[in-house]
Specification:
Length: 133
């Protein structure tokens, strides 16, 4: 019984540690802005569409993580169009964008995790309204 609890505890710690590792930001907001302005990177909001109404980083493409993990209806054309650019991903807290960046890196894309949207706004960078259409 104790061995089972130890194993389950170790697995829980490993899962939490992995999530925290993936969620860590790997690019500063101002560096992300500069790369997007230079045309070498694309900023991507991986939150779900219902979350975008609260505001999005200005110039961000809105591509939900669920589509990346699923049918890729919107992701596939985006990835084809921007294959040569760095993909800078963010979400609410940085966890989903970390998972998305990891998945994309495994597929050969240059993807980094900006972290949560609050890092963008805390750096004084502008928000925009989501594209409707």
């Amino acid at each position: 019984m104790n061995l089972v609890l130890i194993v389950l505890s170790a697995l829980a710690v490993a899962f939490i540690g992995r999530s925290l590792w993936l969620a860590r930001p790997t690019i500063a907001p101002t560096a992300a802005r500069d790369a997007v302005k230079a045309g070498t990177a694309m900023l991507v909001d991986v939150r779900e569409s219902g979350e975008w109404s609260s505001g999005v980083a200005k110039s961000a493409a809105l591509l939900a993580l669920s589509d990346l993990r699923g049918p890729r209806t919107k992701w596939e054309p985006f990835l084809k169009a921007h294959r040569d650019k760095q993909l800078i991903l963010y979400c609410l807290s940085g966890t989903r964008s970390g998972m998305a960046a990891s998945l994309l890196r495994k597929q050969g894309y240059k993807a980094v995790n900006l972290g949560g949207l609050s890092r963008w706004t805390s750096a004084g960078l502008p928000l925009g309204k989501p594209f409707k259409g």
